[in-house]
């Protein structure tokens, strides 16, 4: 996965890095980001090969959460379990498309 272009979850990776380096974070209920529905996007395609590739990306990307909870000093058993549950949910979402 390391040398491949990330095609799934790239927004999560960007957000994690931004939060890691931010001096301040402002929470708002205002919608500042809109997704555009693209029927041919990787998350919408029902091709089993692409779905399996998405599953690999999901595992790779969401596994990075383990590194970030260590960086942020919140690496507890509870948080590791939360990350694992999040990874399993993402994989299940991708698998459900098979």
Please characterize this protein's 3D structure.
The protein has helices at residues 10-21, 48-71, 77-95. It is globular. The chain has 3 helices and no strands. With 98 residues, the chain is mainly alpha-helical.
Please name the defining characteristics of this protein.
globular; mainly alpha; 56% helix; 98 residues; single chain
The helical percent reads 55-70%
Report the C-alpha radius of gyration, rounded: 15 Å
Fraction in beta strands: under 5%
Mean pLDDT: 81
* Structural class assignment: mainly alpha
Tell me the distance between the termini: 21 Å
- Counting DSSP E segments of at least 2 residues, the number of strands comes to 0
Largest sheet: none
Encode the helix/strand succession as letters: HHH
Poorly predicted regions are none
Task: Compute the number of helices.
Answer: 3
Overall, the morphology is globular
List the helices and strands and how they pair.
Blueprint: H1 10-21, H2 48-71, H3 77-95
Brief sketch in words of this structure:
By secondary structure, the protein is mostly helical. It is 56% helix and 0% strand.
